[in-house]
Amino acid sequence: MPQKRYLYAHQFAMEAKRIYLAAGCFWGAEHFLRKLPGIKSTRVGFANGSTPSPSYREVYTDTTGYAETVEVVYDPEKMPLKWLVEAYFAIIDPLSLNRQGEDEGTRYRTGIFYEDEADLAAIDEAYSREQDFQGQALRVEKEPLRNFYPAEEEHQDYLIKHADGYCHVDLKAFRYAELLKELESMVEGVGDEVGVMANTAALIHESMRFFWTGFYRVADEGHLALGPFQGPVACYSIGFGKGVCGTSWKRMASVVVEDVEQFPGHIACSSASRSEIVVPLFDRSGKVRAVLDIDSDRLATFDDIDRRMLEIAMQIVAREIY
Ligand code: SME
Description:
This protein is an alpha+beta fold. It has 9 helices and 14 strands. It has 2 domains: 2-169, Peptide Methionine Sulfoxide Reductase, Chain A, CATH 3.30.1060; 190-321, GAF domain (Beta-Lactamase). The longest helix is centred in the C-terminal third of the chain and has 18 residues, at 304-321. The structure holds methionine sulfoxide. The site of methionine sulfoxide has 14 residues, from helix 8 and strand 14.
């Protein structure tokens, strides 16, 4: 394994920061957020309501104005706020007003509540990106934190205390959160592109049990060349704009394909591949340098959770190697 090098900002410890995220029932939201890389601590509680020191029972009446909220203390060096907000979007339906999963009421509204005005730039960046993707206004509040009261002890770490407790968050999101944490510590300080790609492909492939997981690197202006991967043998070269990989490169955006047979120009490296996701890796100047390609032998394997979480994963990787 290449030597780790500790040259960058990682060595200058920055102060921990706090953000308050309302994502529906706070049990599952906390369980997800606490697993992400760079999270120092979490607490569940009630934010932006109008009565003093509310109890869970009072908030449950839906008359106090509070939203079930997770206080997240994080290390912005390991987990920049933009990525944290992108991860948050993976566990909510941002178009739903006062309803997430089975839970309905203003206490289950979604919101990003900040303490520091300076955080607004990063929040806005992730927010507008999500809004552009959705093509309509999000129903997620974006406001200064007015107040926050921690909930009773029994609600803290609820899904650790009750492993089979109610949870509206897709279990896949928890696996991805754990994967991101492992990935972040695995690649930190390793500058070698091939090594990082090889271990990243292995980590994703092993933890998510996909059919084919690997990288294609931009070789010249017209071609992607096969990079490190896990799975059956694959095609060596893919043209700009060709197949799913070349399309993702050209569009400079992730491409999710539910049924490869319906994707015009899909390149079948293996006939067993049924659905696919491709996520680009950008360098600091915004150029696509490579793509992550994942194939599944089942139809419609990948959704917005895969896309959002793999996009964060590829930002973690790109930050280390480009
Ligand atoms: N199906 C991809 C080609 C790569 S293999 O699936 C590994 C595409 O259409 O770009």
